[in-house]
Amino acid sequence: MLHLQAFDYRKGTQVPYRNLDYDALAAWLELILALDPAGQYPLMAAARTYAEVPDPARSRKMLELVHREYLADPDRRWPWLAHAAVLAKHRLKDMALALRYAETLERHTTTEDAPLWVRQMVPFILADMGELEQARIMIGGLIASGQVRDARDAEMLERRLRMIEERLAAEAAGAPGQPPPLRAHPRPLALEQRSRRSPGTLQSGIEVCTLSQLRRFWRESDKISRKRRDFRHEWRFPAGPDVA
Length: 244
Hints:
2 strands
């Protein structure tokens, strides 16, 4: 594994991850896992290093590798598929892929070592996809089942359930086929404070300045930059002694 991870960095050369052959990389990671099934490092490298390259195609190859290898040992390899679901949702913006990974986690992870959030990713992703009714049913069923024993987890689920129910109520109140009514945009805090106070420090500690103050600041900064530039041009090393 160390030889594989050091392949991209050799004496005098450094190959970016996005330029590696990811098919060969996946084959090497699968071979290392076959030789040491209890090892966690290959999947950690796949999920946390090679899958986070700015190349969606290469990233997907690593995420699919993590998904395949997770199924061979779900109760030990769930952290890496959970990270893959997060990457699919936030980095790749692929909600369908994130939902597939979350459903796999919910279906196959049975160990008590896995935190509750690993098995509750599905309703949250559904809510982000706009499937509010399905998310509401799943979160309500999870609360009613008594599986949530931690008071903070239960409070978080109930708060999320209320938010979903409020969104459903708001959608039901709107006229069908028409966009929701526009709401007046709240006045910015800075303008609200400026209307009552002179320019200065707000109660929240935010500094307020006018356009003229910004221009004065830019002029002073430009003067300082010119002085530094002139000083660098005028300063020279002293001449050394003449050598006969």
